[in-house]
Design a protein that fits this description.
The chain folds into 2 domains: 2-59 and 310-416, Aspartate Aminotransferase, domain 1, CATH 3.90.1150.10; 73-308, Aspartate Aminotransferase, domain 2. 39% of the residues lie in helices and 15% in strands. It has 15 helices and 14 strands. Strands 4-10-9-8-7-5-6 form a 7-stranded mixed sheet, with helices on both faces. Strands 1-2-3-13 form a 4-stranded mixed sheet. Strands 11-12-14 form a 3-stranded antiparallel sheet. Helix 3 runs antiparallel to helix 11. The longest helix has 22 residues, at 311-332. The two termini are 37 Å apart.
Length: 418
Amino acid sequence: MFERAKKVEPAGVSYGNRWFEPYPFFAKEARGAKLVDIDGNTYTDYWCTHFAMILGHAYPTVMEAIKAQAEKGWHFGVAHELEVTLSETITKHVPSAELVRYTSSGSEANLFAIRLARTFTKRSKIAKFEGGWHGAYDPLHLATKPPYGQPPSGGITQGSQRDTVVVPYNDFEGFKNRVRDEQLACVLLEPVLSAGGGISAEMDFLKALRGYCDRTRTLLIYDEVVTGFRLGLSGAQGFLGVMPDLTVLGKIIGGGLPIGAVCGRRDVMEHMDHLKYSGLDYAYHGGTFAGNALTLAAGLATINVLEHQPVHDHIDKLGKMSRDGLNAIFEKNAFPAQAAGVGSLVSIHMINKKPLRDVTGYAMSDHQQSKNLFNYLLANGILVLIPEMLHGAVSYAHSVEDMRKLLSTVEQYVQTRH
């Protein structure tokens, strides 16, 4: 299958992250916490569809909602009730959300959030943090991994990134030194770095950022594409208690189907309202598949389970079990690694320097050791994301036995490397 794929897709995959040595497997079906490839091999899945599948694959009530909606029509291209219902649900749970607009991906949602912030503040400069991942929008697609001064892709012009100020995570003094006297439209951050290694923003740091934004009339934007509805129904902002002005959502609110959303303060969000604003006071937003009915039906069904089942208690318990267990294994065997993460998010840094407060853990990690462990886990039926920086998420379908298998497999690897 890989040979076929290489003839019609660059690198034989539809996304570079899905390639790994010596070749990627091709999924055939997925149920619960398990993926099955076309050769019949079964894997316990911590990739979780890039963290979107909080309930696990093919959760029965979500499947039923998708089937029921498909019979009525899967995309209308005009307004429909599901948009209103999901928006009401989001505004009920997400503290900063007063109004909501949908996109087809988290990348698009970040794009529109930045445009909205610039429209509202009449400023151009934005600040984003080292290690923060916000998708492929040119002004944000930088400083995702070392070297931070070099874009991670060709085709990105210096002009497109001229108004982006890259700042250090969990370092307010460093933030101020980099920003200096710039008049910022917004400060954009992941309250928990996802691809950056599961590092949480510290409370004092968030409070200092909130104060800075209030003083300078700068908008604070949280990218909660990963943490939204994963760290509880109120996301990271409810978990951490420091409110942004705008929030970017994705993944879980679509039940595993393509989605993104921008939500936040009414006075800011209203600048997307073409009935109230025009010209340079209006922030354009749109998209053929924005508010896709099939996606919203899946998202509502997913959130309904989160509201009525002990999902977060279960996944957070297993997340803590995995992090504590991994760190105990590394310490007992004097192995230079440590686990990080929050709630149901888990990452492994191949470095024993503590504490991990920013992306230096990724920069200094032994990436070859990380790849070796990735391959060992894969050979033993365990899938995590990605070879160079191991991280994963726990779903409602994972069990204590799955965690024990993960821990015992990692311990076997560690012992073979001594």
